[in-house]
Recover the amino acids of this structure.
């Protein structure tokens, strides 16, 4: 079985974070989403992975290389013609996939469970396609299955009146028949080749389409709040501290904390986990609170930060309490004057400078 990961698109709902980057490069708990996706497939025993990227994109290959560090071989596949829908992503990978069975994984999905169970169910039930489903509060954002007598009878893309509270969760297992179905698809009214239409057509033609519910946590990271929730859930899975940086005797550490090599924690700093602090970052006289991930080469001084996702080379020297925030690379935040209310919520793109 092969793996195919969707890693293109423009991430417009995540701007300005995605103005200068592919959204799949955004780090959660200091690891990019594309790395998390590759690791999930590798853990399921898949060694050949195709990654579908935007035309001319080199960002994914810069992060992953040839895949050898993850124990896999990676083939990069450009999605010619732009983002034309999820089914078009599979069509782009057709030559790579050949007649092999495969797992199709949307690279901006985060799950805490394992992929292996979906593969096992696919073979045990002798299916042509298996869809992972998840109960959600807002199914109208997703492809939604209509289920009768424990069988999917159709899948509707982003319905105004969802027939169930389930979303098709961005993990699929297929055999070769999906290619014939997609080849015959026409674009939807919004100009895309919809994977929901492909699933409904598979069912109509009598192919065996099953489903398996995600019993753990799943998140489609389409909005800034989703990124914060994904970061929080991944940090909450850390089960033990790993401190490889230098810590002054005056520093207080509580909970599970990872401090990567070269990082320094100085002065009367207080780190309350779960927290991860990246390589070569410097924390001075600051409070870093639960569910915060801090990237590499950051300098945090006289600051309070909690439940936030901070990327690399960030400088913060501000007494304002920063919460529920996403900061891109090379952001600078400094004090200017006292303002109210305290507790600023920020979503800031790369190379920005903010005075608070």
């Amino acid at each position: 079985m092969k793996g195919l990961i969707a890693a293109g698109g423009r991430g417009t709902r995540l701007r300005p974070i995605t103005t200068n980057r592919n959204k799949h490069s955004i780090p959660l708990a200091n690891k990019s989403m594309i790395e998390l996706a590759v690791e999930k497939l590798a853990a399921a025993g898949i060694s050949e992975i195709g990654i579908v990227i935007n035309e001319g994109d080199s960002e994914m290959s810069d992060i992953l290389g040839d895949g050898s560090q993850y124990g896999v071989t990676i083939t990069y596949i450009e999605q010619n013609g732009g983002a034309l829908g999820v089914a078009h992503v599979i069509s782009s990978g057709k030559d790579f996939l050949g007649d092999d069975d495969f797992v199709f994984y949307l690279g901006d999905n985060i799950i805490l469970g394992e992929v292996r169970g979906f593969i096992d169910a696919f073979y045990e039930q002798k299916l042509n396609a298996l869809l992972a489903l998840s109960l959600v509060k807002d199914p109208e954002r997703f492809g939604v299955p209509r289920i009768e007598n424990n069988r999917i009878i159709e899948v509707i893309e982003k319905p105004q009146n969802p027939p169930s509270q389930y979303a098709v969760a961005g993990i699929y297992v297929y055999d070769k028949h999906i290619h014939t179905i997609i080849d015959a698809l026409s674009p939807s009214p919004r100009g895309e080749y919809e994977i929901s239409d492909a699933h409904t057509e598979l069912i109509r033609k009598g192919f065996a389409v099953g489903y398996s519910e995600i019993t753990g946590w799943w998140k489609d990271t389409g909005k800034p709040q989703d990124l914060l929730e994904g970061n929080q859930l991944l940090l909450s899975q850390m089960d033990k501290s790993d401190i490889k940086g230098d810590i002054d005797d005056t520093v207080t550490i509580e909970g599970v904390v990872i401090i990567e090599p070269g990082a320094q924690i100085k002065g009367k700093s207080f780190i309350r986990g779960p927290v991860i602090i990246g390589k070569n970052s410097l924390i001075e006289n600051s409070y870093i609170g639960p569910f915060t991930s801090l990237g590499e080469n950051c300098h945090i001084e006289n600051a309070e930060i909690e439940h936030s996702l901070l990327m690399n080379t960030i400088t913060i020297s501000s007494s304002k309490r920063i919460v529920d925030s996403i900061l891109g690379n090379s952001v600078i935040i400094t004090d200017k004057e006292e303002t109210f209310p305290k507790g600023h919520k920020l979503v800031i793109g790369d190379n920005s400078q903010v005075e608070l």
About this structure: Residues 224-236 form the longest helix (13 residues). The chain is about 20% helix and 35% strand.
